[in-house]
Amino acid sequence: MHGVSLALPENGTPSPPSAVSTPSSPPPSTPLPEQAASPARSVRVRDPYVVAVVLFCAYAALSICRYRQLRTMSWDLGIFEQVIRAYAQLRAPVADLKGPGVNILGDHFSPVTALLAPAYRLFPTPITLLVAQAALFALSAIPVTRVAARLLGRWPGLAIGVGYGLSWGVQRAVEFDFHEIAFAVPLIAFSLEALLTHRWRAALWWALPLVLVKEDLGLTAAAIALVVAVRARRTAPRIVPDALAVAALAVVAAVLTFAFVIPAFNSADTYDYWVKVDGGSGPLDGIDTKFRTLLWLLLPTTGLLALRSPLMLIALPTLGWRFLSSDDHYWGTDWHYSAVLMPIVTLALVDAAERARRGARPWLRSYARHLPAAVAGAALALTTSLPLSALAEPDAYRVRPEVRAAERLLDRIPDDATVEANVGPISRLTSRCRVFWVGGTRGITPDYIALNNGRGWVGDPVAYAKRLHPRATYTVAGEAGGYLVLERVAKPRT
To answer: Is the separation of the CB atoms in 473 and 488 below 8 Å?
Structure first.
């Protein structure tokens, strides 16, 4: 579906030569049988898949090693497991970690996560989510590497694929346990591959499902459709109305989701995150952090050349809501927030480099010719201080004795128990217990309280439990590896 033979636009007219061939990339004409079977061509066809398989192994290894070492970063893995577990059991997607009985569709609109329910039904463990995310991120490297090789040549294409796969935005997302944006990254990558090869309708079809990944991504889908309309207006004018219709549909879907769909599932009849996207103290608030994020986004990943491509406009919706927000977590380079930008800036670089290599400026042609190797080199160098560097350390594959002791302690909590927990115990309990966030049980008195108490912040455990639940009595069931479990004492019958 995404091979060389589908490079013609939908109106059947040939694409401009620059868009489909370079001196190092064969034109999209039908090859002779002996050419089609040549070993060199077969290797080139396999290149993107080899890159993806290697990246998948690295991503999955990092995620699983972190999970085995109880290094979960936040409650998101537990939330998504509760949601996908509910889908797998054909129940409403309730995430008790957000509050007892809270339907996740009233928090973020991400029905796409239901696609993982069959796999989770077979393998009911958080590792299923982590492996699925690794596969989705690795899958996105296929269209990125493939279109880069097609437009720039085999070796520059491989360099771009490696640079993309090791980019800091993707690595930070892999480190961040699991998030629904894992579905968005390949959708964007396949859409932009189709756009760059003038398969306009395919680009629109790949973009449209973004409205089911997360509420804000409808605006990204609209931006892709608008870029399609602009790029197709000369060679395929009949596509322009379709692209504009998709853009309008995506915007309407986003507005309806924000204004009606999410509030309909929300107990407060509102969208909870309006308070975070309120402008804060103004656009200059945190300007130094925002500027550093832009530099990280454009300099090591694209050498600033991506700024010459209109594909960069597709990044504006995500950058807009992040930088206008009052929440400084959105401004930096940590967490998973930049993952959806990585295929955009990388393929904007491919687009700009292909144009520059045809341009009249010798210095720009030379810069574009050498940039893919520089991007790959920068990604490899930066990886020494990014999450994947942990795979080179023997300790990454060892489980410390204190971790095993903590796991044995948590295993003592029976299946189907109600548990109040913080980050750490959550990822070991959501597959078999009903788990609430510590302090967020809203009147429910849980059977157990499980806490990561590595720094001793709890103090007197019994007194702490009494503050959480004044009408109940808890006793310490065990402590191990910095973890603490308290069990509710049943009242005697009268």
So the answer is: yes
Other residues' Cβ atoms within 10 Å of the Cβ of residue 134: 23
First to last CA, the chain: 72
- Pairwise CA distance, residues 106 & 257, whole Å: 10
Would you call 17 exposed, middle or buried from its count of C-beta atoms within 10 A (0-12, 13-18, 19+)?
exposed
Beta strands in 47-92 (DSSP E): none
Burial level of 265, CB count in 10 A (0-12/13-18/19+)?
middle
Reference 204, options 238, 166, 154; nearest CA is 238
E strands, 224-326, are: none
Q: What is the dihedral of CA 272, 274, 280, 285, to 10 degrees?
A: 100
Element (H or E) spanning 484, and its range? strand 483-488
Q: Give the pLDDT confidence of 142-200 residue by residue, as tens digits.
A: 999 999 999 999 999 999 999 999 999 999 999 999 999 999 999 999 999 999 999 99
228 Cβ neighbours under 8 A, 6+ residues apart: 195, 200, 203, 204, 239, 243, 246
**Strands of 434-437's sheet, edge to edge?**
434-437, 418-421, 448-452, 483-488, 474-480
β-strand pairing of 474-480 with 448-452: unpaired
pTM here is: 0.90
Strand duo 448-452 + 483-488: pairing: antiparallel
Which long-range contacts (C-beta less than 8 Å, at least 24 apart) are formed by 271-274? 271/215, 272/107
